[in-house]
Every structure is written in structure tokens, then in C-alpha cells.
């Protein structure tokens, strides 16, 4: 069986969400990731996932790092790893300036520098039980008292820009991607991550590349594309994603989107996300279409594809049927 993960975030019903996590484990999924947005806390939700299962790995995909001090996150993550019987994948990322400033009132000026410090502190606390740090963003000294974490808790980071990708290859256990089309992964992500690993004297194959792939088993691909356009609308306005989309060869789509959005024409802005772009991005259609798309991501260098679930409109077979189809 090919390796496969899935993203399952808490919806309106937590019990229904847990049923889907249990189904993913029963079907043989390797890992389940949740997202941390303006809703349930990502780490606490994973505790519920861990309690409902016994084998599947549980991961944050991803947790915004900067609102949590790395010392606090180290203790929280180590505790969750213990609760889950060492199944945690700690996925963190810098998020976006608009989110940091509007949600938390925090500046985001040097995300790469801050992430380097952040991960170094986490590593020291996990591996040594203590950390002393004097950087540009964090200064202090901390040690666990009568407690030990698993020393190899995997730390994955979200990255899209080349500098962040290169550092991730050198310092992280994995990279978590969203909004990344296979062409950008093949041309930019994979070679840059591998180069960073090689420069650090690491085996490039040891750095996991996870990509969330919008997936829907449906008899109506056009409706699925339209639903994905609605879900992806906000991301078309975020700088990190825009660079990756343009880097995948969709500069014309970005330009048309901006022009339509600027004049307040939401329908035209959605339409600017072309069928060519949606069909490259998503695994939307029958089982053969889903299989082919996942192979395209694997060929681009993704080592752990992940089913990104969404409500795909008319013709959609449902979340559970999609989970089953993707791993058949």
C-alpha cells in the first residue's frame, strides 16, 4: 500500500470528526493532520484524535508558531506526544503577516530568522531537556524538571519560499505544503529542500515532503472546481501563496484575479482561477482521476501525499467515500 495521510479538521460536529479519524485509521492512513484556524485549538483537538485511535500518527498541519513561546509549545507538544503514545508530528509555521497582526497584534518582520531560533529551542528542549537561548527574538534559559520528552519528536515546518525551503531541508524533519501545485513542487520545492539537506550533510530522503491535495470523489468535476475556487479565494490574496501560484506558471490567473477583485467582481475573481489551475491543483473526479493526480504529486517529489477534504458540491460522493477512494 502506498503511503498516504489526510487532513481532517474539526467541523460542526466533533463526534462526526472523530468518526472520520477512526475511519482513516481503519483504512490504513499513516497520519491525520488537523489545521489551526479561528476555531478549535489544534493541539487540544489532536488529543481527542489520539484518544479515539491507537495507531495512526497525529499531526498539526500547521500550528502558527509565533503566538506560542517555543518553551510553552515544547511542554505542550511533549505532553501530547506522551498522551498519544509517541504518535505526534509537530507541524509549525510562521503563518502570515495579516494573521499575526490582525488576530494577535504581533509583528512579523523576519519570519525565517524567528523560525530558526524557534526550532533550535524546541530541538534542545526535546533532545537535551533544556535550552539556553540568546537570539534576536528569544532570550532565556529553561529546563524540564523531573520530566523527559521523546528526543526525536518530528518537527515539520510549513514553507513555500526558497529560503525557508532550503533551511527546512537543513534543519527540519519535514515540510508541510498547502496551496502548492505539482509543477511548483517539482521545480522549486523538491530541489530546494534537497539542496538544503545536502548542504547540511543530511540525507535528502530523510526530509519528509507532505502536500495537502484537495480531493473529492465526484461525478461532477466542474462543480468540484467551483467549490474549490470558493475555498481557495482567500489564499489567492496571501503573498506566500501568490508567489507559489505564480511560480507554478499561473501569473495570468493572479493578474485576472487582482483586476476582478479590485473592481469588486467576486464572480469574475473566482472565474480567474482557471480550470487548468484547478485541475492541476486538485484530485477531483473518479477514482482513476484521483489516483493519477496523486501519482503526479509523488513524481514531483512528495513523499507523503495527504487527502485534503472539502465539500465539492453537486455530484460529490461524500467525505467518507473520498477517504475510501483515495486509498483503495
Quickly describe the structure.
With 328 residues, the protein is of the alpha/beta class.
pLDDT below 50 for ≥5 consecutive residues: which ranges? none
Radius of gyration: 19 Å
Instruction: Report the total helices.
Output: 14
How much helicity do the residues have?
40-55%
- Look up the CATH topology: TIM Barrel
- Proportion of residues in β-strands: 15-25%
* Mean pLDDT figure: 94
Secondary-structure element pattern, one letter each: EHEHEEHEHHEEEHEHEHHHHHEHEH
Number of strands: 12
Structural class: alpha/beta
Provide the domain count. 1
Distance between the termini: 9 Å
CATH architecture: Alpha-Beta Barrel
CATH class: Alpha Beta
- Principal-axis shape equals globular
The largest beta-sheet arranges its strands as 1-2-3-5-8-9-10-12
Biggest sheet features: 8 strands, parallel, barrel
In CATH, the homologous superfamily goes by the name Luciferase-like domain
Describe the model.
By secondary structure, this protein is α/β, with parallel strands linked by helices. It has a single domain, classed as Luciferase-like domain (TIM Barrel). It has 14 helices and 12 strands. The chain has helices at 14-27, 42-52, 70-83, 97-104, 111-128, 162-171, 182-199, 221-232, 239-247, 251-262, 266-271, 275-281, 287-300, 319-326, and strands at residues 5-7, 31-34, 57-60, 63-64, 88-93, 130-134, 139-143, 155-158, 174-177, 208-217, 283-285, 304-309. The strands form 2 sheets. The chain has an 8-stranded parallel beta barrel, surrounded by 7 helices. A two-stranded antiparallel sheet has the order 6-7. Strand 9, helix 7 (182-199) and strand 10 (208-217) form a beta-alpha-beta unit. Helix 6 packs across helix 7. The chain is globular. The model has no long low-confidence stretch (mean pLDDT 94).
Amino acid at each position: 500500500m502506498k503511503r498516504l495521510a489526510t487532513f481532517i479538521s474539526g467541523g460542526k460536529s466533533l463526534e462526526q470528526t472523530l468518526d472520520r479519524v477512526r475511519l482513516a485509521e481503519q483504512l490504513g492512513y499513516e497520519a491525520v493532520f488537523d489545521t489551526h484556524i479561528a476555531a478549535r485549538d489544534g493541539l487540544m483537538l489532536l488529543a481527542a484524535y489520539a484518544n479515539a485511535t491507537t495507531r495512526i500518527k497525529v499531526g498539526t498541519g500547521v500550528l502558527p508558531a509565533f503566538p506560542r513561546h517555543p518553551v510553552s509549545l515544547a511542554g505542550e507538544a511533549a505532553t501530547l506526544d506522551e498522551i498519544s503514545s509517541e504518535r505526534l508530528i509537530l507541524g509549525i509555521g510562521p503563518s502570515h503577516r495579516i494573521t499575526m497582526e490582525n488576530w494577535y497584534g504581533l509583528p512579523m518582520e523576519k519570519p525565517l530568522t524567528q523560525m530558526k531560533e524557534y526550532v533550535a529551542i524546541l530541538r534542545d528542549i526535546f533532545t537535551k531537556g533544556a535550552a539556553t537561548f540568546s537570539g534576536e527574538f528569544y532570550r532565556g534559559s529553561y529546563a524540564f524538571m523531573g520530566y523527559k520528552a521523546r528526543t526525536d519528536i518530528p518537527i515539520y515546518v510549513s514553507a513555500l519560499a526558497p529560503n525557508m525551503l532550503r533551511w527546512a531541508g537543513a534543519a527540519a524533519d519535514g515540510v508541510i505544503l498547502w496551496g502548492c501545485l505539482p509543477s511548483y513542487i517539482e521545480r522549486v520545492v523538491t530541489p530546494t529542500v534537497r539542496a538544503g539537506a545536502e548542504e547540511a550533510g543530511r540525507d535528502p530522503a530523510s526530509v519528509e515532503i507532505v502536500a495537502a491535495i484537495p480531493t473529492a470523489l465526484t461525478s461532477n468535476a466542474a462543480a468540484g472546481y467551483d467549490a474549490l475556487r470558493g475555498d481557495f479565494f482567500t489564499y489567492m490574496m496571501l503573498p506566500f501563496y501568490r508567489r507559489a501560484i505564480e511560480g507554478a506558471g499561473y501569473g495570468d490567473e493572479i493578474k485576472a484575479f487582482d483586476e476582478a477583485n479590485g473592481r469588486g467582481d467576486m464572480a469574475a475573481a473566482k472565474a480567474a482561477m482557471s480550470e487548468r489551475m484547478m485541475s492541476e491543483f486538485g484530485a477531483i473526479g473518479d477514482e482513476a482521476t484521483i489516483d493519477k493526480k496523486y501519482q503526479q504529486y509523488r513524481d514531483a517529489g512528495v513523499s507523503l501525499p495527504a487527502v485534503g477534504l472539502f465539500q465539492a458540491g453537486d455530484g460529490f460522493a461524500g467525505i467518507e467515500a473520498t477517504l475510501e477512494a483515495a486509498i483503495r
